[in-house]
Amino acid sequence: MDVLALVLGGLLGFALGLGERWRLKRRLMPFLTSLEDTPQVARSLSLISLVRRELAYLKDRESRLLDERNQSRFILEQAPWGYLQVDQDNHLLWCNRQAQKWLQIDRWEPRQYRLLLEWVRSSELDQLVERTRQTQTPHIQEWLFFPPITPETLNPGNLSSWLLKGYSYPLSDGQVAIFIENLQPLAELRRSRNQVFADLTHELRTPLTAISLVAEALFPRLQSPEQAWVGQMLTETERLRTLVDEWLSLSQITENPGQCLDLEDLDLRDVLLSSWQRLLPLAQEKQIQLDYQGAEQLWLRGDRDRLIQVFINLFDNCLKHSPETGVITVRADLGSSQAQVQVLDQGAGFNPQDLPFIFNRLYRGDPSRHRGQSPRSGSGLGLAIAKEIIEAHQGTLGAANDPQTGGACFTVTLPIPSEVV
Predict the structure, then answer these.
(1) How many Å apart are CA 192 and CA 306, to the nearest integer?
(2) Angle value at C-alpha 247, between 243 and 250, nearest 5 degrees
(3) Does residue 166 contact residue 179 with C-beta atoms inside 8 Å?
(4) In terms of CB atoms within 10 Å, which of 6, 177, 185, 227 comes out highest?
(5) Would you call 129 exposed, middle or buried from its count of C-beta atoms within 10 A (0-12, 13-18, 19+)?
(6) Across the chain, which distance is largest between two alpha carbons, in Å?
(7) Which residue in 232, 231, 237 sits closest to 206, CA to CA?
(8) 8 A C-beta contact, residue 83 and residue 73
(9) Are 300 and 414 in contact (CB under 8 A)?
(10) Class of 188-255 in CATH
(11) What would the DSSP string read from start to end of 193-224?
(12) What's the pLDDT tens digit per position in 210-248?
């Protein structure tokens, strides 16, 4: 009897063990999914073998992923661009050597869990990260980075700031990646090039003046056709003198945008009308009228003479490309913090492929915009000067084709200081 009870107990325990093992295997099977052939070999392998097989595969996969991550970081370390990665709370997760060098990140280690703003004192970079996270779209931004003040940066031979360009990309879980390009060498090259051109144009003023004086002295003493040739020489000499003066003016504004302005409180509407008045003979020649639409007063702070120069350039461009008996429209709006002025003509508008370049120095657009006319020759610097002057006022100048008329539309936006409002 005791033997029978022992046998029955053993059989019952064995059956219960098999049942528990089957249930455990059934519960674990949904988790053993890394290998595709697991369902096929599940019946022939024990549970322990299946788990060991799964763990071995996961360990091998982890090793491969770790190698790929290390390889990616090695590539980023050798890259000529800086790289930063921050988490959803703006903690700096990782950065390469270039980013550490350009952003003056000292003694950084991946295990240090600190905010990006603690490592890099740059509100522009912080705003770029936040804007990318909120919109979940890539962004591009340029800014001047001022490194922390140290005994090295106080050395006159060292740069006090340099120009950086950031490209931000949203990642999963609120993380953001930023690639950084150092534009300072390019800015230095551009400044050096502009200085060379400025020196060259300055040296040209004296011989051009001498040629002009000689031509003016010869002109009344000659007969046709020699007199016509000298007259043409005078015209071309004057054009070159204008080009030299405008290039020097543009170089001065570009180099010292704040110092070239003589700021005062002024009425922008009065500036617009004064600018048009100086071009009135040209407008009357083509019977073109000015249609002003906007506020009676547009008070802001700016350089009157420089702003008149801006709108003379814009009006002159519109007059060149407007048809006879046309209308140039000026729309002026006054907001709480800025004033916006639109200048529109009724010409053929800009060629779309010219629009990104019309404010470049010496750029000449598609001749079809002249509508078959013989336009007055210009220096190719008027729009570039206008843009530099507006940006020196902390404003913006853009160009587009008006969707209603198809003509050119220049948009000027200028800030209004709170004390003026």
Answers:
(1) 25
(2) 140
(3) yes
(4) 177
(5) buried
(6) 150
(7) 237
(8) no
(9) yes
(10) mainly alpha
(11) HHHHHHHHHHHHHHHHHHHHHHHHHHGGG--T
(12) 888 888 888 888 888 888 888 888 888 887 877 777 777
Q: In 306-403, at which residue ranges do the beta strands (DSSP E only) sit?
A: 327-334, 338-344, 396-401
* Amino acid found at 140: I
Residue 151 pLDDT > 60:
no
Give CA–CA dist 88/172, Å, rounded: 9
**Range with top average pLDDT, 16-20, 84-88, 144-148, 336-340:** 84-88
Class of domain 79-182: alpha beta
Length of the chain, please? 421
List the chain domain ranges. 13-74, 79-182, 188-255, 264-415
Q: Could you confirm whether domain 264-415 is CATH 3.60.130.10?
A: no
Alpha-carbon gap, residue 262 to 391, rounded angstroms: 15
As a whole number of angstroms, the distance between CA 164 and CA 180 comes to 7
> Which two three-digit tokens encode residue 150?
């140290």
Strands in 82-86's sheet, in edge-to-edge order, are 92-95, 82-86, 176-182, 162-170, 139-145
pLDDT per position as a tens digit, 331-342: 998 887 889 999
Nearest to 104 by CA among 149, 51, 48: 149
pLDDT greater at residue 357 or residue 250: 357
Per-residue burial over 144-165, b = 16 or more CB atoms within 10 Å of its CB, e = otherwise: ebebeeeeeeeeeeeeeebbbe
